[in-house]
Specification:
alpha/beta; 5-stranded parallel sheet; binds cytidine-5'-diphosphate
Length: 229
């Protein structure tokens, strides 16, 4: 069967990653989380004194970009992908609210995107991958054979993120999460470089009222149709 590239884009916290991971596992593809890369750059900024309040020291970050190395490894037990920043496992840290607060600003910087997109294209060279993000089907892999654009209401998305943070032992505030979701949607859709938008040839998936199982079945069906063509 021919190997393809599957691009999954959509709004924040709509379960893209869970969905993309499950799809990759069931079709035997590698999964890449492009958002984790932007989150790792945001964490680098926090750890290197490049954030004042919520303002990024853009010129200093530009100078330091060559020092940032982001890699992925598969967890030997769960097979989930783990993000490493300069050799350190940052998978948990990059999901914190302090990173979420600044990540969309970092991701709006053109030199950050140029760097990340080059690395992402490298990962897709051999095909057989699922990558999720905001601009995968529009900018990173405009020729991807399967494109999915996921959405759900902001309240449903904030509730999912709330549950995720609670499950890992944090004590989140729902209102704060909802505000962060809305703020990131706004920055992602209105930025100049690769704004979040549905590619014309992407299939739309609103999963507000879908179970994970229904969603997975729907995706596998689409995958079969596309790879059989
Ligand atoms: O929290 P969520 O899973 O929705 O987001 P993420 O996939 O972890 O991405 C975090 C942030 O990185 C997004 O809000 C975007 O601002 C940015 N991002 C991007 O600009 N382009 C991508 N391909 C992926 C993420």
């Amino acid at each position: 069967m021919k190997k393809i590239i599957i691009a999954v884009d959509g709004f924040s916290s709509c379960g893209k990653s869970t969905m993309a991971k499950a799809l990759a596992r069931s079709v035997g593809y590698l999964y890449f989380d492009s958002g984790a890369m932007y989150r790792a750059v945001a964490l680098f900024c926090l750890e290197n004194g490049l954030v004042q309040g919520e303002t990024i020291a853009v010129e200093e970050l530009r100078e330091k970009m060559p020092q940032i190395r982001i890699t992925f490894e598969a967890d030997p037990e769960t097979k989930n992908s783990i993000t490493f920043l300069n050799g350190k496992n940052v998978e948990s840290e990059i999901r914190s609210l302090r990173v979420s607060r600044i990540v969309s600003q970092v991701a709006a910087l053109d030199f950050v995107r140029t760097d990340m997109i080059a690395q992402q294209r490298e990962m897709g060279k051999a095909k057989g991958i699922v990558m999720d993000g905001r601009d995968i089907g529009t900018t990173v892999f405009p020729d991807a054979e399967m494109k999915v654009f996921v959405t759900a209401s902001a309240e449903v998305r904030a509730q999912r993120r709330y549950d995720e943070l609670t499950a890992r032992g944090d004590n989140p505030n729902f209102q704060e999460i909802l505000e962060n979701v809305l703020q990131r949607d706004h920055i992602d859709q209105t930025r100049e470089v690769s704004p979040l938008r549905k590619a014309d040839d992407a299939i739309l998936l609103d999963n507000s009222n879908m179970t994970r199982e229904e969603q997975q079945e729907w995706l596998c069906e689409k995958f079969k149709e596309i790879t059989a063509e």
